[in-house]
Amino acid sequence: MAYSEYFLNGDIKAFTDKTIPHMASLIYLSPVQSLDDLKLVIESSLRWSLANAENPEWRMRNHGYNGDWDAFLMSVVENCYIANSQFSSDYRLWLDMFKWIYGTKYDPTRVVELVAGEPHSRIHVKFNIAKTCNVLSRGIKGYLFYENERETGERFKHLVDYFLSLYPHCNPVFFSKQLPSSSKVKIEGVTYRKGAYIQQRSFLAAINNILTPYDEEDGRTELVPSDPDLLDKLLKGLKQPTMPPEYYELEKFVISKGYDCLSASE
């Protein structure tokens, strides 16, 4: 009930009085209709989070943020396309938010103005490059090749230019021809998921017209792009010499292994 009342009337006080929300839900479940609405919700969320920073239950539910507004802001962008949120049905709003925070091309010095007059209003965007590349590559692939994902993935066709500006900065570890032996691997103190490695291979397989076991499981017998011009633009952009050498080596590896490329290791 608290969730539905919040969505219907936007009353953050009544919402938080009845439940200790996960911070991200303050955005996902908000009744926003425009980017300006979204900024107002973020201002309310910011004020509430600062006022409740010492609440032990809030800290338990939101341990990933620990008062770090930057982390909260990034989680909103990376996850707000999820089903059952306001942003899953209105991708134009999602795009407006993405571009407001990330810009139209990758800029490691980007600063976002959140709320005028607030002490925390200027946020230097902390990019989770690997996660963002996974979200974008998966979304672009789904829009281009998977008929059941084209409607929900349409938003990603507008972010190919951004993806091409960001992808060269992805950690070359994800382009390794050696798959991790476990679901997670720690390299130089950073934990990486095996699924992220497989995602890169799946993306490369799709844009090179290679079917994989995942396609077979979905009953897919061919990869027909929904937007050949967009695919051509993507392929030309990836041929630029800005990608790390490991990317081109992995692409050759994927092509050579074909159907088995998702599980093969050198």
Overview of this protein structure:
This protein has a two-stranded antiparallel sheet with strand order 1-2. A two-stranded antiparallel ribbon has the order 3-4. By secondary structure, the protein is mainly alpha-helical. The protein starts with a helix and ends in a 9-residue tail after the last helix. The model has no long low-confidence stretch (mean pLDDT 80). The protein folds into 2 domains: 2-124, no CATH class; 129-260, no CATH class. The protein has helices at 2-9, 12-18, 25-28, 35-51, 56-61, 69-79, 86-89, 91-102, 129-145, 160-166, 194-207, 213-217, 228-238, 245-257, and strands spanning 111-113, 122-124, 184-187, 190-193. Helix content is 51%, strand content 5%. The chain is globular. The chain contains 14 helices and 4 strands.
Summarize the structure.
The chain has helices at 2-9, 12-18, 25-28, 35-51, 56-61, 69-79, 86-89, 91-102, 129-145, 160-166, 194-207, 213-217, 228-238, 245-257; strands at 111-113, 122-124, 184-187, 190-193. The chain has 14 helices and 4 strands. The chain has 266 residues and is mainly α.
